[in-house]
Description:
It comes from Thalassobacter stenotrophicus. The protein has a single domain, classed as Orthogonal Bundle (ABC transporter involved in vitamin B12 uptake, BtuC), CATH 1.10.3470. The protein is built from 15 helices and four strands. The protein has helices at residues 2-32, 39-57, 82-87, 89-97, 99-121, 131-153, 172-175, 187-209, 211-221, 223-228, 233-255, 265-280, 285-302, 305-310, 314-329; strands at 60-69, 75-81, 169-171, 184-186. The strands form two sheets. The protein has a two-stranded antiparallel sheet with strand order 1-2. A two-stranded antiparallel ribbon has the order 3-4. Helix 1 packs parallel to helix 8 and helix 12 runs parallel beside helix 15.
Amino acid sequence: MEAIILQILNGLDKGSAYALIAMGLTLIFGTLGVVNFAHGALFMVGAFCAVTLSRILTLSHEVVDPTRTDFLGNPLKVDVPYAYDWFGQATGDAIIDWAVPLSILFAVPVMIIIGVVMERGLIKHFYKRPHADQILVTFGLAIVLQEVIKYFYGANPIPTPAPQAFASSMDMGAALGFEAGQIIYPIWRLVYFVFAAIVIGCVFAFLQFTTFGMVVRAGMADRETVGLLGINIDKRFTIMFGIAAAVAGLAGVMYTPITSPNYHMGMDFLVLSFVVVVVGGMGSLPGAVLAGFLLGVIEAFASLPQVLDVLPGLNQIIIFLVAIVILLTRPRGLMGRKGVMEE
């Protein structure tokens, strides 16, 4: 039972990232009808927003410390972060420590701007083009973003730690009533799952209960009729593209302590996220979220040592095998709508 619970937790952790990225993909496809292969790159850019803010907060200058001397007795020069000058040492240390959560405030406007510029500057010219053209141009854009990140940040992963308060592990076994010491799980992974659940809930609430969201949902169902009512649906869809980019960016920001950011991390998640979208059903937000968590849990169980001893490498292909089975039995996916991607 302890092993099962541990794998469920691992699956929810990975499934949270799948669900967030897949939800952004579905928002873009559902509103604009664009198959956006650059969405994984937005996940990567979000992660490097956290890296950037962390570097900004740790910028330092040299000062002479009279309390410390070298072997000749001369005062040492030490690096002091500018954050100490601005906020004091105690507050500066706290801000530097909490760089990743604070990056949310930095990443949201940056990702919205990037999303709007992408949609207005490039993607709007491909609305009426075949999906193959959309895939090619957005995949090319993803490669460009990847190479830009590689140029400025290098090819090596950049460790970006979680705040010290969440850097340790907790005894989930004792918390759930099992024997102590049997289920030890990193706290930040639990934080990531809770964060993903909050973001997903906020997006659904925004679409369901706000006037803006209701108009967007109406436009997704019948764009021409909404336009005939005098509503500038294109402007609202552009904003939704920015929101979808922000969701992907937030997923990347909070994932940095779990996997050190690197320039190809977007591609690592992109293909799997598209599989999640297809399994959930093209254009279905609930389907994308459900499939994300479902495939994350299945992948976690396929990674058990007992399973890999019998079927080595199964964890690398299990998502694709499940996708094949689901699409053979339900061609539209778990919650797909009739007529979407069927022309």
